[in-house]
Amino acid sequence: MTGARPRPCGRPPASPPASLPAAVWEEISTSPPRSWRRWIRKDHAKAVTLVRDELAADRLIRVERRRVLLFPVERVVPRRPYVSRRLAERVSRAVRGGRPVSRVEPDLRVLAALAAAARIRSVVGDGGPHDGRDRVEQLAQPVEPIATALRKIIDAIKSSSSAG
Fold first, then answer.
1. Is residue 20 helix, strand or coil?
2. In this structure, which of 81, 91, 137, 160 has its CB flanked by the most CB atoms within 10 Å?
3. DSSP calls for 69-129
4. Who's near 111: CB < 8 A, 6+ residues apart?
5. CA pair distance 45, 75, nearest whole angstrom
6. How far is Cα 108 from Cα 138, in angstroms, rounded to an integer?
7. How far is the C-alpha of 162 from the C-alpha of 67, rounded, in Å?
């Protein structure tokens, strides 16, 4: 899946049928070509549910369900918070520099690119969106259309919420 309009190439990913990669593959393979922005915005609640359920099944998180007044509320708690903190530190170091981009592990590189596109403060820092832009662009090369679409969607959401 590359380019501005993803299409399936090769075989589906080797993942359980109820996982996010399998669901995305199925959606993209059975639909006409659409932009990455469309795929990121489509069924995001379903994507969150799939990932949450998969992480809970793998016992990486605990989902606490309760009601506040009449509304159901879920609280997601990592079972091993130190693992989450350590991963966040590694992603932050990948974004902020230190070692050459070519030496950053591929999975960490993708996480860093997407976290920077989403402007997650714990990763990017308070330096603003232009701080380290060249490095972020280098990190995002393998997933460039996705990172760009994610950044544009988040910018649109922020500008619409601040406008009214």
1. helix
2. 91
3. TTEEEEEEEESSHHHHHHHHHHHHHHHH-SS-GGGS-HHHHHHHHHHHHTT-HHHH-SS-T
4. 87, 91, 94
5. 15
6. 13
7. 30
Q: What is the pLDDT along the chain (164 residues), one digit of tens a residue?
A: 445 777 777 776 676 767 788 888 888 888 888 888 888 888 778 888 888 999 999 999 999 999 988 999 999 999 999 988 999 899 998 988 778 888 999 999 999 999 988 888 877 776 555 557 788 888 898 888 888 888 888 888 888 877 76
Chain position carrying tokens 């690119």: 113
**CA–CA gap between residue 96 and residue 75 (Å, rounded):** 30
Quick check: 4 and 147 in contact, CB under 8 A? no
Question: Residue 18 is encoded by which pair of tokens?
Answer: 């109820």
User: At which residue do the structure tokens 């520099």 appear?
Assistant: 97
Query: What's the token pair of residue 121?
Result: 């403060």
Which tokens go with 160? 């619409």
**Which tokens is 25 given?**
């593959």
Query: What is the spatial distance between Cα 57 and Cα 68, in angstroms, rounded to a whole number?
Result: 25
